Amino acid sequence: MTVPVPNDPPIHRPLRVVVATDCGSTTTKAILIEKVGDEYRQTYRGEAPTTVEAPFEDVTRGVLNAIAEIEELSGRKILDGDRILTPCRDDKTGVDLYISTSSAGGGLQMMVTGVVQNMTGESAQRAALGAGAIVIDVLASNDGRLPHEKIERIRTMRPDMILMSGGTDGGAVTHVVEMAEYIAAAEPKPRFGATYKLPLIYAGNKAAQGQVRSILGEKTALEMTENIRPVLERENLGPARHKIHDLFLEHVMQQAPGYKKLMDMTGAPIMPTPAAVGLIMETIAKREHINLIGVDIGGATTDVFSVFDGTFNRTVSANLGMSYSISNVLAEAGLANIMRWVPFTIDEQTLRNRIKNKMIRPTTIPQTLDELQIEQAIAREALRLALIHHKSLATALKGVQQERTISDVFEQQTSGKTLIDMSKLDLIVGSGGILSHAPRRVQAMMMMVDAYEPLGVTRLSVDSIFMMPHLGVLSTIDEQAAMDVFVRDCMVYLGTCVAPVGQGKIGDRCADYEIAFPDGRVVNDRLKFGDLRLYPLGVGEQATVILRPVKGVDGGAGSGAPVTKTVHGGVVGLLFDGRGRPLQLPADQQARVASLTQWFNAVEMYPTSI
Amino acid sequence: MAHSYTPGLTVTDETVVRRVRQLPLQGTVLVKEGEVVRAAQSVARAELPGKVYPLNLANQLGAAPNEIKDYLVKREGDAVRKDEVLAENKPFFKWLKTEIRSPVTGTVESISLVTGQVLLREPPRVLDLLAYVDGLVVEVRPQQGVTVECRCSLVQGIFGIGGEAYGEVVMAVEAPDRPLAPDRLTADMKGKVVVGGSFLPAETMAKAKEIGVAGLVVGGIHDHDLRALLGYDLGVAITGSEQVGFTLILTEGFGAIPMAAKTFTVLAAHAGAMASISGATQIRAGVIRPEIIIPLKNGGHAEKRMGESAREGIQLGDLVRIIRDPLFGKIGRVSALPSELRKIPTESEVRVLEVRFDDGSAVVVPRANIEVIEGA
């Protein structure tokens, strides 16, 4: 679960007009939400540069500028000088509520500690990530670093907050006390100046609370909360996440330039942007009873959210992004992995120089088609790597003893298996400039399909203008209003991907299928290995697909078993992907370029035939 | 040095810069407001706490953590020398005796009877904070640092590596489009800031290191050579702490790109003068660009301070650099600023402008893909 906002202010009046902002690292985005008839709609938007840095050093300047743009566009008077007019006075004056999220100044940066790295260390990491933080390091007794290296590391990092965990309740205290001693010796300083004590949350073995207090009580702003791993078999992340959010507001936000003023302006507590996005994702998954993966690919980082069988997880890949971190995608993925998505040849030196030039001039945009194709190739790799990272952390608890029966003998599974099961995935939600602003929507769909390789039948969508943070925080006040806007204005449904699982020779039969369209038309055809086919199926439309895979290929009901599914349309349509799972691209360069060209043309991905 | 991101780099003959010199932790400021300081002069000093060395005595003595007090020779706060005995047991047979000696010289910071751990701290290290530029101390923040103001010629680069350095400016090529070949570097360039033209090959980097130049300023390099120089692939442009033997500043970007004529002219005009340079680059909110600061002889206050003349966006006639392929690195003047969105070959609809080059030809490019050469 994500962070519920503590002490929600009671909103007694009916909400008619809401203004919401998200203060990002570079841009502050404002949206206006109005009740139109019986439903809420997002009506106007405005944006302005974020003003956390010098010379302004006051986040509210950017907020007021972004809201002023809405005023101009909508004709509604919202501002009275530096004040937001609340509540609504009449049809053209004021708003009922102002809310905000923030990731400015690099977001909430945390360091977490545990005793065993893949047990309490991971639990602490999940707690911090779920609360919207960027985890800058995970220290554990068994992380392989020598004690003095740990101390040096704590000292050189300047986190906004530390979360300490370790030990089950009533277990041994030695290791967790040892970590407290390291932290005390390092005397860590907070990121925003040295005038206040670093907030530190202790969420470990409760038997060690007294000793931790005596070691760290004077040196840090120490808060105690329930153990995040009271017993090995259970994770208890809620209390630690609440505490992180409280301290974020009480300490970190108070130090950031202009945030005291901003906190006075808002009608609900400010949330870290990723926490708000996580909240809206979790809300959708619960309301629709679906499993979903959400991704927000930004310039510097890529956030991945998932809800599988009701369990929420979030990870942030801090150095995978499309501008500031684009060069790191190349470093992590390797040149060959990027080049496999590029439908032409280019020499390594030119490509490397181009990528570095994007890194040092991050606001530039592709001007030519080949530049666009290179950026979209890099995006596929960033998305793929971020999902691998997410899968490694979104796991069942590790270190838990499992009961095995005789039937398990042939299925050797260790504890800590990933919760991400692509064959059970219902919906992928993409967000971030490269996906939301792709010149053709089919490009966004193909980037996600290629990177995630969804199995079976999966619906895909993108966030139209990145308003999920705003809606996340709104959902804490009025869930219905948030859902109305989410469904009608935020999500752009792209369509559905049908991808049988299995591999075969190019041109061999993969599956036969029948599509019953809503207008009564029925299409019967054959999907061959290597095929990619796209059928128009509009937004709001549904069709019935009967898939009859060949033996050895799984359409979702087992090898060779026919399957019938209702599929949803979208701005792109219904995609049949016969390229096999796992997706394999020809190794030979000429053949690879030919295949890519054939696929891109099949779905009309780019302006002219390539 | 951090300021809000503006897509433009300053290259100017005369401006006034202020550089905030901040200690990483509280210390002593050594200069007064109004004092004239030199670049290499120390303006503030702090004592960095020494390194901490944990030592688990309980494990080494084979004793329970709460028993270690019986074995300790030193107490909390005591000074110790390297190899001095910290703790010892007193066995009945002498040859069974175990002595635990200190691995460092320092003090005993803490002794834990819960973990059996002793923390030793090395003596503090003195950190001298230098002025970095010749100039006037215009602000003193007690115990924290100072602000130094300097009237200077300023060239901002696009990307750099390595920290702050000082040296005499020396021109190694005659024109901005000439590469900096290895034979252009001579032994007398040791400790100097060497200005090249369009491109810095790997062989020249090696020679620069061998000679011991203080800094290299060039139009571009290949990413491949940067990787070889650093020993790793730079993923995120946050630099300044690299130690490759010299400070490197790129004025244009990656590839072989002629240095902007204006940049080359400003630097050439100051050949022989002392310059303060920094390769520190941070390309995120709070942008930091590498810089070459050449203090002007008759120093003191000037009317015009950098950043005071707030630009009103891009204007007709502005000198701009195209910063995206296919015309990356070309420089021209803005000749039209159509307000309507235009569809570009990628099918994106974006705001564009027209750039006219010296040869009279003109191109239309997205506004996002140019940067203004400020101070031109």
For the termini of chain B, the CA-CA separation is 21 Å
Alpha carbon gap, first and last residue of chain A? 46 Å
Tell me, what is the CATH class of the largest domain in chain B? Answer: Alpha Beta
CATH architectural category of the largest domain in chain B:
3-Layer(bba) Sandwich
**What name is given to the CATH topology of the largest domain in chain B?**
Glucose Oxidase, domain 1
* Chain pair with largest interface: A-B, 64 and 57 residues
Shape of chain A: globular
Quaternary structure annotation:
heterodimer
CATH superfamily of the largest domain in chain B: Phosphohistidine domain
Helix content of chain A: 25-40%
Give a count of the beta strands of chain B, DSSP E runs of length 2 or more.
29
Shape of chain B: elongated
Flag low-confidence runs of chain B. 1-6, 307-311
* Uncertain residue ranges of chain A: 1-10
Structure description:
The complex is a heterodimer of chains A (610) and B (376). With 610 residues, chain A is an alpha/beta fold. Chain A folds into 3 domains: 17-95, ATPase, nucleotide binding domain (Nucleotidyltransferase, domain 5, 2-Layer Sandwich), CATH 3.30.420; 106-261, Response regulator (Rossmann fold, 3-Layer(aba) Sandwich); 292-397 and 414-602, no CATH class. In chain A, the strands form 5 sheets. Chain A has an 8-stranded mixed sheet with strand order 15-14-13-16-17-18-24-21, with helices on both faces. Chain A has a 5-stranded mixed sheet with strand order 3-2-1-6-12, with helices on both faces. Chain A has a 5-stranded parallel sheet with strand order 8-7-9-10-11, with helices on both faces. In chain A, helix 15 (468-475) packs antiparallel against helix 16 (479-490). The longest helix of chain A has 25 residues, at 369-393. The two termini of chain A are 46 Å apart. By secondary structure, chain B is mainly β. Helix content of chain B is 9%, strand content 39%. Chain B has a 16-stranded mixed sheet that branches. Chain B has a 4-stranded antiparallel sheet with strand order 5-10-9-6. Chain B has a 3-stranded antiparallel sheet with strand order 2-4-11, with no helix packed on it. The longest helix of chain B has 10 residues, at 202-211. The radius of gyration of chain B is 28 Å and the shape is elongated. Classes of the chains: A alpha/beta (610), B mainly beta (376).
